[in-house]
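Try it yourself: sequence plus D-xylitol-5-phosphate, in.
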Amino acid sequence: MKYRIAPSILSADFARLGEEVRNVIAAGADMIHFDVMDNHYVPNLTFGPMICAALRPHTSAPIDVHLMIEPVDDMIGAFIKAGADIITFHPEASRHVDRSLSLIKDAGKQAGLVLNPATSIAVLENVLDKLDMVLLMSVNPGFGGQKFIPHTLEKLRQTRALLDAYEQQSGRRIRIEVDGGIKVDNIAAAAAAGADTFVAGSAIFDADDYAGVIAAMRAELAKV
Ligand code: DX5
Ligand code: ZN
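Structure, out:
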């Protein structure tokens, strides 16, 4: 299983976003995590599909769109047009979770559900066939730079067990992404608990040497 590092451009310099995307991919990142906030589902406001479309020509790496918006369905279509490769949303923000997942899958894109720290993994059980990824929030959504919530490790183990059982009967592996407070010093613990895709915003973009942080993260992952 190859680990993937997904820098969140929420912590990048918004005045130089195209350059930031190019630089962080050149520094060794696997994909770009794109945090969409609406000041409704979460108490913050970021960027929408037009910014995603503007960034699309700056990289061939996958763009991983994390929707923190309510409702989600119209924006799913807009982000598919804008060039998103992976689209995840919070089940609380969709009236019809199965339908929203189908909008993503029917367009040939990868789909995922995002679980807040207090959201039960039971919400996954009836839609496993439509999931490519599960994103576990290790902070409450809305802001970069928050502290990792330790209970996430136990939830990662429970989620990995559920998805492993599904893989046994379906032959299909569903990835687990973890988002919030991921640093060089806790990435290995998250990996050991079951995560394979790691969002990191402030840990990378607040540093001067993006390649150095990403290399240090990979060195930690190599020990797992
Ligand atoms: C929070 C976002 C995260 C955030 C991560 O709502 O979903 O992607 O940017 O930032 P750090 O790594 O700084 O916690
Ligand atoms: Zn995110």
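One thing you can check immediately is this: The mean pLDDT is 98.
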